[in-house]
From TrEMBL:
The keyword rRNA-binding does not apply. InterPro entries: PhnD (IPR005770), Phosphnate-bd (IPR017797). This is Phosphonate ABC transporter substrate-binding protein. GO terms for biological process: organic phosphonate transport; transmembrane transport. Keywords: Signal. It comes from Devosia elaeis. One of its GO terms (cellular component) is ATP-binding cassette (ABC) transporter complex. The lineage of its organism: Bacteria, Pseudomonadati, Pseudomonadota, Alphaproteobacteria, Hyphomicrobiales. It comes from the Bacteria. Belongs to the phosphate/phosphite/phosphonate binding protein family. Pfam families: Phosphonate-bd.
Amino acid sequence: MIRKLFLASLALSLSTSVFAQDVNVLRIGLDGGENESDQLRRAECVAEPLKAATGVSEVQFFPSPDYNGVIQGLLGGTIDIAIMGASSYAAIYLQNPDAVDPVLVAQQQDGSTGYHTIMVARSDSGITDLASTKDMKLGFADPDSTSGFLVPNVSLPNDLGEAIETFYSETGFGGGHENLVLGVLDGTWDVGTTFGSGQGEWSEGYTTGNLRIMVDKGLLDMDDLVEVWKSPVIPNGPLMVSNSLPAETKEQVTAFFMDLPNTDFECFDAFTAGGYTKFVEAGQPMYQTIIDARKSVIGS
């Protein structure tokens, strides 16, 4: 039902905009990594200034119940703008390399533009390291998540010394990062993969990432979790702009978001989920290793 409503909303938006040089509506996709109401609350501040910067009459938001809804919207031209993980961009690129451009990426306080998969377990579970997760239930965030699925499938077997499928008794998906961590806390999963900057204090959920978002919302006390494994650095996901937009509109959208930290840092902080300092330029070469990894692990 949620997916039907999502697709119906996209169809309605198409009926009010014309695929021509005159763009009346800009459509921003929000993936399913966090609950819908919080995503909308954080993103809504960009609507009015983005309208002013581009001259469109309306900015619409389309929260999807999962990552794939936004991926398909960007591929089909029914979504114009989205920030998603590198694996989601890779999924789009592998199906149509000309569908979107990864124009910008958020930068952390130390100047880095990367983060990590963080594997967590309950602190009272007796799990202290990877070896102690043998024959337990492992939850992934989403099949299109970079940190929550792709990178663990590439990097984790090397540290386990065997395939994930044989090391763990069961694997599955938690329905997004927030739900995955809640699933670890309620015992649905013994251990699960989410993401964080790996910088700052563990007690605060690091400086950026899902753990920090959940701490800030009062959903998580980091004393209830223990870090079991941390991946190599992953490039931050890009802000993507659809190539179905006219070149002038794409330039206006890119310029608006590049300047947003200067014009309204509070809005930038909310839109990027906090902990970043600015946007910097991105591009396809930055994500080639993730594209190659996704092609190897998932195929598309």
